[in-house]
Amino acid sequence: MYILLVEDDQTIAEGLSYSLKQEGFDIRLCANATDAKTVISQDLDVFSLCIFDLSLPDGNGYELCQLVKEKADTPVIFLTAMDEEVNVVMGLDMGADDYITKPFRLRELISRIKTVLRRSAKQASSFQKQMLSIGPIKIHTLEAKVYKYEEEIVLTALEYRLLIIFANHVGQVLTRSQLFDLIWDVGGGFVNDNTLTVYIKRLREKLEDDPQRPVIIQTVRGLGYKAGEFHATR
């Protein structure tokens, strides 16, 4: 299993490469954004996971993540010394699958790499259905497009993943912990309850006729959320 590691700190890069090889991974190491872009353009289909440092001498991990997600749904983990929530949300919006701040414990990173790979495999299985729906919302999974009454709704990568989870569990109450577990690493610490609330709010603003009285993504007081079961008419 191949991992693309982009890290400009030689000490971190060599130590992480060695440790991941000991875990059975094959590593392609790039020290800058320019080399990484070449690898992504030519060989992305080889890699099962990408790990990007956010701060690079000639660019940043955000642009690399965007390039990856334009070509495929290959999982991406960010390494960064920045842990402000604005950076977390920006990375999630671009499709990042996890986010870990330096300094980090090596065993924790390896555990989270394995978690992301397992979760990616489960999501790939979910996406095999060509069409999902919640009332008036239709999800064309092969095209990764969402429509409401035939009008396309533009979602960020994480909003789309969250909607897929609800569409695969229509009528089922999902606790906040279950949502964390399904879409993020619940033990990761890079996202919190407030961030989940923000994404639920943003989804409702894009999908609901009246976001203040949601029927597509409903709140089950004291328990969590569920996708509504109904036959919508316009």
UniProtKB/TrEMBL annotation:
- The record places domain OmpR/PhoB-type at 129-229
Supply the InterPro entries for this chain: CheY-like_superfamily, OmpR/PhoB-type_DNA-bd, Sig_transdc_resp-reg_C-effctor, Sig_transdc_resp-reg_receiver, WalR-like, WH-like_DNA-bd_sf
Query: Can you tell which superkingdom this protein's organism belongs to?
Result: Bacteria
Q: Which residues carry this modification: 4-aspartylphosphate?
A: D53
- Work out whether the entry's keyword set contains Ribonucleoprotein: no
A Pfam family name for this chain? Response_reg
Q: Name one GO molecular function term.
A: DNA binding
Chief location of this protein? cytoplasm
Instruction: State whether keyword Isomerase applies.
Output: no
Note the SMART domains from the entry: REC, Trans_reg_C
Which residues, as ranges, make up the DNA-binding region of this protein? 129-229
Q: Where is the Response regulatory domain?
A: 2-117
Ordered alphabetically, the record's keywords are:
DNA-binding, Phosphoprotein, Transcription, Transcription regulation, Two-component regulatory system
UniProt-listed PANTHER family: ALKALINE PHOSPHATASE SYNTHESIS TRANSCRIPTIONAL REGULATORY PROTEIN PHOP, REGULATOR OF RPOS
Q: What is this protein called?
A: DNA-binding response OmpR family regulator
- From which organism does this entry originate? Alkalicoccobacillus murimartini
